[in-house]
Design goal:
heterodimer, A: 284 residues, mainly alpha, MetI-like fold, 2 domains, 16 helices, globular, B: 322 residues, 75% helix
Chain lengths: 284, 322
């Protein structure tokens, strides 16, 4: 955006950028410090004389070695991947169907149902985690990672449906009607015409669902107590922090590795995250 | 081929045509809008009815009973006793106070600094994409894990924050400070609020940035013609134009801040002396440490009226989107 500015352009350039520095330091420092701690020797980590901002004694992989050899961290990562992939997949298919129906079809109660989906989207998981845990127990899935696969869609479906409704509404009806005149049924028109033109929205829905599943904590914490069934977030936060002794090196190694997959995805798809964040919430 | 031989083939072909036409007709029937509409919603409906609506009903029945983990069969109806006993409970009252302090402070911080950050991001920046990527990072990281990072930064002995403060303290010749960030009531609350703000700030900044970019440039030009100062422009153009977005974002954030669990659970578990307990962490403690499901569910449900009020306002604001 080229704006005409009065006064010194260079001065403005410097002011505009310097104002952001405190925010960037605030946003990035915890992540930096987490990574730094993960690679730091214990002798330096617990030396009050050492400067905490960098590595004096070089890099060590001991904390990571401990994590992968002495704990079930790898299993937790695999559990997280499995839960996130399956929960995202199920929610995606179900949400595409629901969103298309609510955004495009005319039938009795459509507005009410759209509002209901939105209201459920606004119900925080912390409101219902106790009775939901009981339901999980009653259907025999307590202490089983499968319980997360079936409970995560309770917040993924409303979210994705709401996000996708916005995208489906932007597709001109004419395109769809043309396809239907050419002999396509509605479902065929949805699959062959509507979905291809809303690919960015579909990617957004998948990315957000995957992120929400990966980051979920309270269900994973309260439904599962068996070590081998835990996900990465709970494994690191609940299993590595036990007793009075905090092994910060190992904990930070776990936190770094557990965040890494989601941060990598984020780096590759940054623009989708920005688009989805503004579309999904503000439109709501 | 003789005519007689062809009859079984013919009837088979006829049957096939009929079958096709039946499936075709069934397909046509199902693709009518009012049928297809419900059909496509069915999986979502079943899932949410079974795992949201049903547990919600259970939550209400829990609240009205003296249910205890391990003795579900012996539970009996106790009316509003759980709610009354909570209102007479010091820890619960403390939790209510904490929740309001936490929510009001964190949302205010997020709104003020989020707006400031959005205005800063709305300039012609070099590395625009990189900067946005960095700003949004805290929001993408798993909360439980980033909160662990903060817990380490708040360590009572090795805190990097205290260490940094002490460089300045030593510079002026005073004895070094020892700060127990998560161990003192007010300080712990402030520390938890900072972490929640750190997580939620990007959401405010990025959505408000989108709101800022939607304000037409002509409005600023018109204001400039009228001799408006930058402050005038901010208070008389930017802020009024941003109000709808700001309102929705604040309501959204209030819901999810009020219902927060992760930050407090990881950082303080509600301590010291219950001074950072929120509804969700107290519910969790009652249910899993004291095994009192009824009161745990009642604590959770105490959030419900306030949440519904917030949802109501969001719906009113969003009405024109439908």
């Amino acid at each position: 955006m080229a704006k005409v500015r009065k006064g010194s352009t260079l001065r403005h350039f410097i002011i505009d950028h310097f104002g952001l520095i405190p925010f960037l330091v605030f946003a990035l420092f915890p992540a930096y410090f987490m990574i730094l701690t993960a690679f730091k020797h214990n002798s330096e980590l617990y030396d009050l004389q050492a400067i905490p901002f960098w590595l004096r004694e070089g890099i060590t992989l001991d904390h990571f070695r401990f994590l992968f050899v002495k704990t079930r961290f790898l299993r937790w990562l695999l559990n997280s991947v499995m839960v996130a992939v399956i929960a995202t997949g199920c929610s995606f298919v179900i949400s595409v169907m629901a969103a298309y129906s609510l955004a495009r079809l005319r039938f009795r109660g459509v507005n009410f149902l759209a509002t209901a989906i939105f209201v459920i989207y606004l119900v925080p998981p912390t409101l219902l985690f106790l009775p939901l845990g009981r339901v999980i127990y009653d259907i025999g899935l307590a202490d089983n990672v499968v319980s997360l696969i079936i409970t995560y869609p309770t917040f993924l479906i409303p979210f994705s449906t709401w996000l996708l409704m916005g995208y489906f509404r932007t597709v001109p009806r004419e395109i769809e009607e043309c396809a239907m005149v050419d002999g396509c049924g509605r479902i065929a028109a949805l699959i062959r015409v509507v979905l291809p033109v809303t690919v960015p929205g579909l990617i957004c829905a998948i990315l957000f669902a995957f992120t929400l599943s990966w980051n979920e904590f309270i269900y994973a914490l309260t439904f599962i107590s068996q070590t081998t069934q835990k996900t990465a977030t709970v494994g690191v936060a609940a299993e590595l922090v036990r007793g009075d002794v905090f092994h910060w090196g190992e904990i930070m190694a776990g936190a770094t590795t557990g965040s890494l997959p989601i941060v990598l995805i984020y780096v590759f798809f940054l623009d989708y995250y920005v688009a989805g964040l503004t579309a999904g919430s503000v439109k709501g | 081929m003789a005519p007689g031989d062809s009859s079984p083939v013919q009837s088979e072909a006829l049957a096939a045509t009929l079958r096709v036409s039946y499936t075709r007709r069934l397909a046509d029937y199902l693709q009518q809008e009012h049928i297809l509409g419900y059909l496509l919603l069915l999986p979502a409906f079943l899932w949410l009815a079974g795992l949201v609506a049903y547990p919600f009903g259970m939550a209400i029945s829990y609240c009205l009973s003296d249910i205890v983990v391990g003795r579900q069969q012996a539970a009996k109806f106790v009316g509003l006793d759980n709610f009354i006993s909570l209102l007479n409970n010091e820890i619960f009252i403390q939790t209510v106070k904490n929740s309001f302090t936490f929510t009001v402070s964190a949302v205010t911080l997020k709104a003020v600094f989020g707006l400031l950050l959005a205005v800063l991001l709305n300039k012609d920046l070099k590395f625009k994409r990189l900067i946005r990527g960095c700003v949004l990072l805290p929001w993408v990281m798993p909360v439980a894990l980033s909160a662990l990072g903060w817990k380490w930064m708040y360590d009572s002995l090795y805190s990097v924050i205290t260490w940094t403060l002490n460089r300045f303290v030593l510079l002026v010749g005073m004895p070094p400070l020892e700060i127990n960030w998560l161990g003192q009531a007010n300080l712990a609350m402030a520390s938890v609020i900072v972490v929640n703000t750190w997580i939620g700030l990007p959401f405010f900044a990025i959505t408000l940035l989108a709101g800022l970019q939607a304000i037409p440039e002509e409005m600023y030009e018109a204001a400039e013609v009228d001799g408006a100062t930058p402050w005038d422009k901010f208070f008389h153009v930017t802020l009024p134009m941003l109000r709808p977005v700001l309102a929705v974002v604040i309501l959204f954030s209030t819901i999810f801040t009020f219902a927060d669990f992760n930050t407090v659970y990881v950082l303080t578990q509600g301590g010291p002396m219950n001074y950072t307990h929120l509804f969700a962490t107290l519910a969790n403690m009652l249910a899993f440490q004291i095994l009192d499901l009824g009161r745990g569910a009642a604590v959770s449900l105490f959030m419900f009226p306030l949440l519904m009020l917030l949802v109501f306002f969001i719906l009113r604001l969003a009405r024109r989107e439908y």
